[in-house]
Give the backbone structure.
Amino acid sequence: MSDDARTLKPVDVVVVGGGWAGSIMAKEMTEAGRTVVMLERGPDRSTAGEGAYPASIDELEGNFRYKLFQDLSKNTVTIRNNANQTALPYRRMAAFLPGEGVGGAGLHWSGVHFRMPPDDLRLRSRVIEKYGAKFIPEGMNLQDYGVTYEELEPFFDKAEKVFGTSGEAYKVNGQVVGQGNVFSPSRSDHFPLPPLKDVYTAHLFRKAAAEVGFHPYSLPAANASQQYTNPYGVQMGPCNFCGYCSGYACYMYSKASPNVNILPVLRRHPLFELRANCHVLKVERDSTGTRATGVTYTDAEGKVVTQPAEMVILTAFQFHNVRLMLLSGIGKPYDPVKNEGVVGRNFVYQNVTTSVVWLDPKVETNQYIGAGGGGVAFDDFNSENFDHGPLGFVGGSPVWVNQAGVKAIAGAHSGGPPGTPRWGSAWKAGMIDTYRHSLRIDAHGANMAYRDVYLDLDPTWKDAYGQPLLRMTFDWKDNDIRMNRYVVDRIGDVAKAMGARNVHLTRREFGKPFDTRQYQTTHLGGGAVMGTDPQTSALNRYMQSWDVHNVFVIGANAFPQGTGYNPTGMVAALAYWAAHHIRTTYLAHPGPLAG
Amino acid sequence: MQGLAGVAACGTVSGTGAAAPPKPYMPVFFNAAEWNFLLAACDRLIPADANGPGALALNVPRFIDQQMTTPYAQGAQWYMAAPFVQGPDNLGYQLPYPPRDLYRHGIAGMNAHATTRHAKPFAALAPDVQDDLLRAAEGGRLVFGDVPSAAFFDQLLANVMEGAFSDPIHGGNTGLGGWAMLGFPGARADFMDWVDRYGAHYPLGSVSITGETA
C-alpha cells in the first residue's frame, strides 16, 4: 500500500458500483440495519439534473458524445478475436457502451424488462433431456444457473414492482389471464402496469406475425404506461413516447432508473452513504486470503483510501466485476489451455442483427416516436420454445420491433438500402425515404459460451491508475451464426406479410469476425458465472464467491451463457435473490451459503 | 470559385435573399486552406438538391470548426494510451491522432494529392473530380503519411452528418433544415397524442432546444 494511503472508519457493507445492482443491494442492506457505503467511480447524477428538459433532448451529446457513458480515456478493454492475435485497445465507443456515474447504465438504458425463461436457467440439462449430450458442440461450455424459475419468481415479481413495469401477463397462478407471451411461465401476479400502446410499426408487426402463425406479445417495458407509485413510495409519470430513452435520463420520470426508483429513498437513509468519483482499485483480503477486509480506492481528489468492511458486494458492470476479481485475486483465473479456473470463463455477448423493411412511400412510419422498452415481440424461436433437433444448433432468438425512437443523426448514419452511397444526392434520397417509410426488426439472439472465448488481464495496456486493462478474446461461432440465420429467415416471412415494398434481411455471416467498430449491444455477460460446481463457476447459486465468502458479485457476469432477452430484469432479480439469502441466513451465520 | 461560393452560402442563415448577407463565419480552428477544403468537401458530401438543403446552407463547416475546440476533438473521450499498434480493421481505430489531428493530416493530404494529380488544391477542382477524390479517400486508396485516408474520411463524414442533423445549438442544422427534410420533430419529445395515429404525417414542425421552430 502506498504511503499516502488512509484507512477510514469500518462499515458493515461496501457496495462497489452505483447502478441497479448496487442500489438494490444497498437498499436491502440498509433495510437489514447495516451501514452501507456505495462507491461509484463516476459523478453523481440525477434525473432532475441530467434529465432536465429541453437541454437533455440533445442527440449529439446523448448518443454521439456519450455524455453519460464510461470515460474510455481512463479505462477501457482490449479486444481480439482469438488467442493468436494481439488484443488492441477499444479506444472509441462503438460496439458496446458501458455506463458510468450514479445510476450506472440504469440511468440511460432503454427499459426492456424481462424475466429469464425457465429453460434458459437450466439450459444444459434441458438440451441433454431433449436432444442428448452429444447435441452440445465440442468446445461449448453449456451450463445451468443452479437456480430455477420457481425459486426466482418472487424476486422477478419484486423487481417489476420496484421498476413499475408495463406489460401483459399470459398466466397468473397457472390461469391464462391475457394476451401475453404464450411461451412465458406462470407468474404470481400481473405486471404492475398495463402494456404501453403499440407504435405504428409494432402494430403492423403484431398483425403480420400473427398472420404468419407466430405468437406476438407486448414487450415488458420499464417505461410506465401510467402514473405509478412503487413499493418504496417513489412516483413515476406516464411515458409520452418522446423517443429519448437509450443514452438519456428520462425527463418524464417514466423510465425506471436507480436514480428515480430507489436512490431518492436510499439517499435519505441514515445508514447509507454515497461516495461518487471513487474508483475501486482492489478488494483487500486478510492473511488467509479467504476473507475480504474491505476495498482500496482512489477518491475524488486522487488520494488512495482504504475502506474496511465486513462485506464487499461488487455491483459494477459485468466486465468491471470480472476485472476487479482478477485484480484482487478472488477466485482462480481461467486458463483456456488447461481448461481450468473460473474467473474470466464463459464470457458471452448477445447475437443481434437488425433487418429493415420498407413500406409504401405514402405511409409515414414516424420512427422518432418511441419508448425504449416498448414494442412487440414473438418468442416462437427463443429459448427451448421450438425443436432444435432437426436444426442442429443450441440457443434461440426473440424477434421484435422495438422502436425506441430513431433520431436524426442516427437516421442519417443509417442511410439508405444496401448499395446506396454513404453521401451525396443518392444517399440523401435513399436516407430520407428510409427514415420516413421503413421499420426495423431485430433478431435479438443468444450467444453461447465457448472454451476459447474468455476474459483475462491484458499484458500491455494499463488504465489511468496503472492497472492492467481487461482483455476480451471473443468471436462469433458457427452454432450461433446458424441460429441467427435460421431466425432471420423467419423475419423474412413476417416482412412479406407486412406488405413490404423492400426488405433487407441482415444475417450474421460465416467467417466474418466480431467487429468492434459497429454498435451491436451492451448486453455483455458471463466471466464470473454462478453455478453449483466450483470447478465451472466463480460464484455459488447465491452470487457468493466460492473462495471468499464475504464477497458477493451481482451482475450479468453471473450468466453462464447468453440469453435472447435483455439482462436487466434478471440482474435485478438476482440482486433481490442474493439479498434475501444474505438477510435471512448470511448475516446471522457468515460463511459459505453453499458447499 | 467553389471555396468562395461556399463562404457566402455558409454565412447565410436561411437564404431568404432580400436581407443583407451576414458576415461570413470566421473559422477558429481551421486555417484558410483547410477551411476552403472543408467548404468544398461538405458541399459534395451533402449537396443542395430537390430533397433539401445542403451542408453549406446548414452551416456544417461552422459546426465542425466549433467542435474542434471541444474536449472531444482533442481526444479527451478516447483511450489514447500508447503503444499504438496497428491491427486488423475490425479491431477498431488504433491511430495516435484525436479528431483535430486527423483533420490537420487528412486535409493536408487531400490537398497535396489534388495538387500533385491536378495542379490545384481540392477546393479549386471540378465537382466530379472532387467526388472521385472523396471516393478514393473513402475507399482507403490514398495514404497521408501514417493516416489511412479512410480514417480521415470516416471522421469527416461522421462530423458532417452530426452537423447537418444535430440541434442548432451546436452551430449546424441552420433553420432546422436538416430535420425538416427528414420530418424529424427535434426537441418536441412528446407524442402522447400521436403514438396511435397510425401512418399519419405528424403535423407540427420541428423545434430546437432553444425554441426555434421550422
About this structure: The two ends of chain A are 33 Å apart (CA to CA). Chain A touches chain B through 69 residues (CB under 8 Å).
